[in-house]
Amino acid sequence: MSNKNLRGTGVAIVTPFTKKGEVDSKGLSHVVKHLHNGGVEYIVVLGTTGESVTLSKEEKKQVIETVIKANANKLPLVLGIGGNNTQEVVDTIKHTDLKHFEAILSVAPYYNKPNQEGYFQHYKAVSAATKKDIILYNVPGRTGSNVTWETQVRIAKAFKNIVATKEASGNMEQIMKVIKNKPKDFMVISGDDNLTLPVIAAGGDGVISVVANAFPKEYSEMVRLCLKHKFDKAQKLHYSLIDITDQLFADGNPGGIKYALSLLKKCEAHVRLPLCEPNDKVKEQLAQLIKNYRS
Predict the structure, then answer these.
(1) Which of 17, 117, 248, 271 is most buried, by CB atoms within 10 Å?
(2) Within a domain: 170
């Protein structure tokens, strides 16, 4: 069964840090409220953009508790739990209190470079670990290998609680083949902000977005227009943000989006090593683009 709460705009929320490098709960709460005011459909906690791989278990708990409190049951929440050690992912799912979460976002195993059977068996184990809905996350640019459309469709047909894929391959032909061959209720969610419009036009269901951290109102409205097949109006919003989105990723994510949020006075721009803030050229271009956008 599809999960309609996952249709539209989900936001891969940043994890703000203080100048000392500590998790900034106040800043995080501020961003959550910014997303509420922007009208997005749901929030994804502890994803890649949330720098989850550099957070300790205690810090992850702090982030989860902060978001739950600031959210106050207003929006569905999705929790990122993934990794390249299948047993560890399974154990984490089993020992995490998921009562406040709509679903789990689980990235395809990285570094190991599994074959396609390995991906299938990994998601079989993840599926068996919980009754919660699961979103498969295919992002070859980060993981180093691709979950093919055939494997994604095989997983979708085999495991009923794997209800969606976040497709960030950037390969529209692959994405369209998933859409063409998937079970009717299985959802295809864009993992690339600038491909969301064509993905929805091809039959997709929405996005898990980075740029919507900064521009939730405009971006989520663009997605809603797409889902209503009002592409003439959606295109205007899409193209108004496309250059900003390019710059957000020009020197690393989430450095770009955190810098944008700092310009908008939503949180500070600090990231955690091995990440660094964007270079000065990218900062200058982002500042000018955002200034022009808001004027």
Answers:
(1) 248
(2) yes
137 noted as active-site residue: yes
Phi-psi label, residue 107: left if phi above 0, alpha if psi -120 to 50, beta otherwise: beta
DSSP 130-194: -SSEEEEEE-HHHHSS---HHHHHHHHHH-TTEEEEEE-S--HHHHHHHHHHS-TT-EEEESSGG
Domain that holds residue 75: 4-231
Specify if 270 maps to a domain.
no
Q: What share of the chain is helix, strand, coil (3-state, %, to 5)?
A: 50, 15, 35
Q: What is the pLDDT of residues 88-134, one digit of tens each?
A: 999 999 999 999 999 999 999 999 999 999 999 999 999 999 999 99
Entry pTM:
0.96
Token representation of residue 206: 């929405």
Q: Which of 166, 182, 258, 266 is catalytic?
A: 166
Is residue 124 included in any domain, yes or no? yes
Any domain includes 290: no
Q: How many domains does the chain have?
A: 1
Output the domain CATH number for residue 74. Answer: 3.20.20.70
Per the DSSP assignment, residues forming a β-bridge with 134 are 104, 162
User: Which among 42, 123, 137, 259 is annotated as catalytic?
Assistant: 137
For residue 278, what are its two tokens? Answer: 């964007």
